[in-house]
Amino acid sequence: MKRLGVNVDHVATLRQARMSSYPSVVRAALLSESAGCQGITVHLREDRRHIQNKDLYSLKNVVSTKLNLEMAMVQEIREIALDVLPDQVTFVPEKRQELTTERGLDLKELKAFEDFLDPFFEKNIEISLFIDPEKEQIDFASKMKVSRIELHTGFFAEAIDPEIKKQELEKLYFASKYGNSLGLKVDAGHGLNYQNIKDVVNIPDIEDFNIGHSIISYAVFVGLEQAVKEMLSLLGESQ
User: Fold this and answer.
1) Is residue 70 a contact partner of residue 43, using CB atoms and an 8 Å limit?
2) Is pLDDT at 75 greater than 60 in this prediction?
3) Cα 131–Cα 165–Cα 4 angle in degrees, nearest 5
4) Among 13, 198, 199, 232, which residue is least crowded by beta carbons within 10 Å?
5) Can you name the residues that pair with 6 across neighbouring β-strands?
6) What DSSP letter does each residue of 144-167 carry, written as one string?
7) Which 3 state secondary structure label does DSSP give 69?
8) Contact 9/42 with Cβ under 8 angstroms?
9) Is 104's pLDDT higher than 50?
10) 33, 70, 134, 150: the active-site residue
11) Over 50: is that where the pLDDT of 102 sits?
């Protein structure tokens, strides 16, 4: 069965809209785990637009599945991550003006990244790199001794033209199979929802799906546990 990592960033987005103490990110994580998800994902951004430092520390104390921290390659965030010690860090590109992550990392500057990763290897924190489904990027990732990659599914999710959507889906099939052939565990995320997940759930070489916005949005109407259970049901339909 495919695994689900629930991204609870947008619970914090709702809280920060009023700078209040609720809704609780910790409660969202616990409800998601109670519903059966296999991990909790959060993105600690430089501008702290949603998740705050204290959220990360609190989640570390309560998450019993896998705590996956998304982060840019920024020294300040690295220091926090190495203090918290999440189970996994997923490195993502980050721009302050973007609404959400727009694409994967560009790993061409290989040497610039390698030294930054060393402390995480030393602490035995699993490392994943969020990249576009491109052979060149996968080749770079395989040379960096990381164990995982996460394929950016945004281009597939946002495509309207059926032919383009088909092409993007084929890229995900190829990239996941190729990454797996190089010994990388392959995850996927960005823009996935209750409709388009049906197109990617049967890609055999993808292990984990990290999904946030669509689950939190749907939870407004049905509750978080039900929203997570329904997504897990869709992932369980993989052949």
Assistant:
1) yes
2) yes
3) 55
4) 198
5) 40, 211
6) TT-SEEEEE-HHHHH--SHHHHHH
7) strand
8) yes
9) yes
10) 70
11) yes
Q: How far apart are CA 52 and CA 16, in angstroms?
A: 10
CA dist 145 and 114 (Å) reads 9
Of 143-147, 187-191, 196-200, 231-235, the poorest mean pLDDT is in 143-147
Evaluate whether 209 touches 176 at the Cβ level (below 8 Å): no
The single-letter code of the amino acid at 86 is P
CB atoms within 10 A of CB 191: 18
Query: In whole angstroms, what is the distance from residue 234 CA to residue 166 CA?
Result: 20
List residues bridging with 145 in a β-sheet: none
| 102 a catalytic residue | no
Determine which one of 43, 50, 94, 168 is catalytic.
43
Q: How confident is the model at residue 110 (pLDDT cuts 50, 70, 90)?
A: low
* Paired tokens of 116: 């930054």
Question: What's the rounded Cα separation, in Å, for the pair 178 and 175?
Answer: 5
- Would strands 39-43 and 67-71 be described as parallel, antiparallel, or unpaired? parallel
**Model confidence band, residue 239 (pLDDT cutoffs 50, 70, 90):** very low
Distance (Å, rounded) from C-alpha 150 to C-alpha 1?
18
Average pLDDT value over all residues in the chain: 94
| Mean pLDDT to the nearest integer, 156-176 | 97
Distance CA 224, CA 146 (A): 33
Q: How many residues does the chain have?
A: 239
Fold of 3-235: TIM Barrel (3.20.20)
Confirm whether 190 is a catalytic residue.
yes
Check 10, 50, 152, 190 and give the catalytic one.
Answer: 190
Q: What angle do CA 181, 164, 237 make, to 5 degrees?
A: 60
Residue 103: predicted pLDDT: 72
Percent of the chain with pLDDT strictly greater than 90:
88
